[in-house]
Amino acid sequence: MSNLDGYPFADVSLARRLERAEALSNADFIEGRARAFPDKGATWKEIAGTYAMYDGRSSPVTQTFGMGMFQPLTERELKAVEQFFLDRGAPVCHEVSPHADSSVLPLLNDGGYQPIEFTSVMYRPISKESPLLAATNDKIRVMLTGPSEADLWAEIAFKGWSEFGELADFLHDVGRVNARRDNAQSFLAVLDGRPIATGLMNIFDGVALLAGASTIPEGRKKGAQLALLEERLRYAAQHDCDIAMMCALPGSASQRNAERHGFRIAYTRIKWQRY
Predict the structure, then answer these.
(1) Cβ(32)–Cβ(63) under 8 Å?
(2) Predicted model pTM
């Protein structure tokens, strides 16, 4: 069901769609990692409706998604999820939606978990008929990249994320991983013949998950990310998506920009870590 303004209600039904889309997107990333770097041991597993991802001990992808969203959780099932990470020497982290089943929080409280991070999960409706954004710089061209541009996409994304030094190794590999994924569309923004920004999208069951936003320092504030957002929404609508989704740090510039362009906060997720 939808509100009168066309936005679906931010209820458990919507949350399940969004959480499953992100879980499957990360599973797709893990499978791409396993193809690109078979010696890394990347793997994922679904346990009682919880999607557990392992991408290395320090990877931000190493965690769970969808816990308690698709069925209640028992103590035995939580232990099985934890063992997936402990067997690999990884920290045990869970992203938990406020729409998760009521069985989840008591288990986390009793299991020695602490909240460590918040994430705004945002959404907006899209369709082939709905008006999209108006690019502010007509000199920017956006292209959907293929395998031959994977290294270029990775180079631009890495330069744009250069301030996140603690994730340097992970970010350096992202382009090679994306080139080997089954369900990732990589976009590149070009200004005057020079690539300056990147964007990524995954589509699952009518949900377009937007990620991978990166702009090289000298290419910022020129409208590249707006052009990338416009093109990805158009692509998603043409491929029968009715919802676009993105995640951001609460109160961040990314969240503000998303809200300026029609995204609303569906809910705020909490990441829990066992100590």
Answers:
(1) no
(2) 0.92
